[in-house]
Amino acid sequence: MGSTKYVHKIYEAELRTLLHVSERRLQRLRRKRGLPPAAHDGEGSYWPIPAIRDWINATGYRDLRDLTLEWWPAATEPAAYLGAEPFRRHPSDEQPAAILQRWYTPHGVVVVTWQIGEHRLGFEEIVEWQLGAAAYIRVEHDWDIRGPALEAIAGRDAITPRRLSLRWEHLARVLGQPAPYWPSIYRDPALITTWRPGAGTARHPGIPAVDVTPLLRMAILYPAGHAVQRAMIHLAQVIASRDAESADVRILAEQLAARRITTDQITLAADAAPRDVTVEAGDLDETVRRIGWRDVQARDDLLAEQCMRVLALWDGGKDLAHAHVIEISRNTFCGQQFLFRLEPARRVAQYVLLDRDHTARTMIDPLSDIPVAVPADDEPILALALDRLPTSSPLREVILEDPIWIRTDDDILYPAPHDTAYGLTWGYSGTGPTTLAILIAELLDDISHKGAIPSSGAAPGLVALLEKKWPPGTVLPRAYLERARRL
Questions:
Q1: Dihedral of the CA atoms 311, 312, 313, 318 (nearest 10)?
Q2: pLDDT tens digits, residue range 243-283?
Q3: Most buried residue, 1, 2, 164, 379, by CB count within 10 Å?
Q4: Chain-centre distance of CA 192, in angstroms?
Q5: Residue 153 and residue 166 in contact, taking contact as beta carbons nearer than 8 Å
Q6: pTM of the model
Q7: Whether the bond into 403 is cis, omega within 30 of 0
Q8: Alpha-carbon Rg of the chain, whole angstroms?
Q9: Of 5-9, 57-61, 431-435, 465-469, where does mean pLDDT reach its minimum?
């Protein structure tokens, strides 16, 4: 059991389900088969789980292949490790979906599944890959109060699996040794498949949350010092730095310190490798980053598209002039005016943010260089809003449509500038109207100001104005906005 200080209980209804008996049959087991006596608390009759486990194993009343490891007896010697193999859904898959480890115990083979990546592997798939095991366990990515979460089924539940939670103490007790644990970012298939019992903690740089391979491949196409090379290497290092330390390792240390789990139940199989540099997003000048990404987004090759996807997955594209995806309506006055002036454009890498499958017509707004993807059917028309407007002409009016539009004194219409993460809207009390109020105040002073983010500095009068339920198409002139800002 380990040295945890809590009582395991099983109540009468749960025990009858476990033993497949009626209430009357349970009474007979007490009288004729030596079932331990029950104790009582405010919830009813209960038995200590260790006592029921010992009774099952002494009497053989249930076949252990019908039960999860919680009910198996403690090992008298360490289980034999049979090795591990990758599970691939398709033979052509480069990355396995999971690694399946196998342990031999006197009561049958125990399969422990380590999921690689975010997609959850079903027990039906595990069982089909490893038929005939006595027990199946899946290590989850999340945690419960006593360690990394484990789900388990009994071997004979394989056809219609009934998943039950399991604790590491049960796994370690059956294996006769602390069970190895790989934190999520160190679940490298090669690391797990080459592991053997008794191995120390392996050191690993961590598997990035986003695959940085396209960035590195792009970097080597440019000479040292080129803005593209510097921007690609910089982002790869930022991503790697964020993934250098595992939250799983920190949580495990906290639970060990609190004695919620113990070192005789779990052993850390991998931890962070030493690193000589930690890179933050601001360590490379923003101008260099933006120039580098401007060159990449203007390329027309697959590698450039892959780099754009990495950037979008990482931070939404903060270093792009066009980063926030908006939908342009065909049915509004401003939408039609904007769409009418579009011109055909060569497909370059930035369009992958709008049209991943290469099915839309690529267009561009000649007055703002905003990329637009126009589908062949009635699907939404998508565009990349600017992070700042390319004009010095002052703001004339704001038009409340979806998206929000800005008209300047030279009578040019633009989609409102956006930050990568925050949308703009009106008609309720919340982040959208507040962000729009901040943006309008900034554009009144400087039409080329960068897209806004929420803050506590919004002008109360502008916020109140934009929280009203104005009908779509409402035009708010500059003078009206200036007056609201002064309130």
A1: 70
A2: 656 788 889 999 999 999 999 999 999 998 887 778 888 89
A3: 2
A4: 22
A5: no
A6: 0.73
A7: yes
A8: 31
A9: 5-9
